[in-house]
Design a protein that fits this description.
The chain is α/β, with parallel strands linked by helices. Helices cover 40% and strands 17% of the residues. The protein is globular.
């Protein structure tokens, strides 16, 4: 029945009469982050040295010849995250009636037993980095209040995850949390999206609630606040100061009962200096201030998070893979991760799709270092080649330079259009162009 049991998403393990593993399915191996073949022949207490004899339901099945149904255990997963694990175990008997072993079948719960459905599960943020752990502790403290929180971090670091954790820790956890990326909405629609409209405010306008009304009693999360027009920032500041706002076209003020959490991918003081953020608004929204360190500064977290993604996406993308090999971990640690955790997530998903059918994934598939490699460097399986043997920072800078130069030429040196295409604030684009020497090239061509 090995092939049948291996296809299950539920962990299944079997031990012989002496407590040694004779079967360990892939779902169980994925939860523990191990190669199942390396577990066979080892004793339960050797594989799980933190267990005592009386704590193991498998061993108790053997000694007491009794079965256990829906036995709960708080379990640490492959990335150190806490899992709520419910399992049942029963003895196995041979034809003569003698006990020959025991089987355990489990499942991972979304919450611990006794947790009510209307209680929000707190999003877990895993990290072994001291600086990151301090920020997680800080967001828990800030989250428990009603005060505004500002989160700064590079693109892909998980700002929305921090915001959701703050909401889940707050007195408003049972109410809705609405999210708006200020850079994703055209300027002429952003105000109506936020404040709502009344019929006749402009051609085609109808009575429509904005996010301030829809999030009433809950939390409003505004991402990339530095992309919001300054004129609209002044209206948001007024909401925070007196708690009232007016939908477009309305003369009647409405009460705004929201908890505001904001995020930026630009350092706040730089945003104020560049005119992307009102200084008075900054001081109003930064009562709680969180700075998420980039992934390249958290070397110990790279393997930790990568293993978590293998466990999360493996069952759907490649059920054969149960864990990452050390070679793959070293490969990941040598990358600079300009896209942070979001990039790492995509690398793992891509690598799972392109991996073979071995339990251990020994290599990962990173993006190539140039557009020509991307166009011509696919092998016969569609896998992307590993970057050439050159300094990683040099490769990334070369790739970024080529992308920007191509976009600049395509838009006839219209940098605002280039910034929109690359999904960057214009100030960030100018900063990158200056760092890469492209600004000097543009000035030389102009002269």
């Amino acid at each position: 029945m090995k092939h049948v049991l291996d296809s299950l998403t539920q962990p299944v393990t079997i031990v012989d009469r002496d407590g040694y593993f004779v079967y360990y399915n892939r779902a169980s191996a994925r939860m523990d982050g191990v190669d199942p073949d390396n577990i066979l022949g080892h004793h339960v207490l050797e594989v799980s040295p933190w267990l005592q004899m009386e704590d193991s339901t498998l061993l108790r099945c053997l000694s007491e010849q009794s079965r256990f149904t829906d036995h709960y255990q708080a379990y640490n997963g492959v990335a150190g995250e806490q899992l709520h694990y419910m399992h049942s175990a029963m003895p196995l008997y041979g034809r003569s009636g003698d006990i020959i072993g025991a089987i355990e079948i489990g499942r991972v719960l979304t919450a611990g037993p006794g947790k009510h459905d209307n209680q929000r599960e707190v999003p877990e943020i895993i990290s072994d980095d001291p600086a990151m752990r301090r920020q997680i502790e800080a967001v828990d403290i800030y989250g428990a209040s009603e005060l505004p929180v500002l989160i700064y971090g590079e693109t892909g670091t998980g700002k929305e995850l921090f915001a959701r954790r703050a909401h889940a820790m707050s007195p408003r956890a049972g109410r809705s949390m609405l999210c708006l990326n200020c850079a994703a909405i055209p300027e002429n629609l952003l105000e109506s999206t936020l404040f709502g409209t009344t019929r006749g405010a402009f051609t085609g306008a109808e009575n429509r609630k904005g996010l301030l009304a829809l999030a009433d009693g809950g939390t409003l999360f505004l991402d990339e606040l530095n992309s919001m027009p300054i004129t609209l920032q002044s209206k948001l500041l007024r909401v925070l100061q007196d708690g009232y706002y007016r939908p477009l076209g309305s003369q009647e003020p409405l009460k705004a009962d929201i908890r505001l959490i904001t995020a930026m991918n630009q350092p706040p003081f730089d945003a104020v200096r560049d005119g992307n953020l009102r200084e008075d608004l900054y001081y109003r929204i930064s009562v709680g201030f969180i700075v998420i360190p980039p992934l390249r500064n958290r070397m110990n977290d790279i393997g930790l998070i990568a293993r978590r993604f293998v466990s999360r996406y493996g069952p759907a993308l490649n059920p054969a893979v149960t864990h990452l090999g050390e070679t793959a971990i070293r490969q990941l640690e040598q990358h600079d991760w300009p896209g942070n955790v979001r990039e790492l997530e995509n690398v793992i998903r891509r690598s799972l799709l392109l991996a073979g059918h071995e339990a251990t994934m020994e290599t990962v598939t990173l993006m190539p270092d140039s557009l020509s490699d991307l166009a011509s460097g696919l092998d016969n399986r569609g896998a992307l080649p590993l970057p050439a043997a050159r300094p990683l920072r040099e490769s990334l800078a070369s790739y970024e330079t080529q992308l920007i130069r191509t976009a600049v030429q395509r838009h006839n040196h219209n940098l605002s259009a280039v910034a929109r295409e690359l999904a960057l604030p214009r100030t960030t684009l100018l900063s990158r162009m200056q760092k890469l020497g492209i600004i000097r090239e543009e000035q030389a061509q102009a002269s």
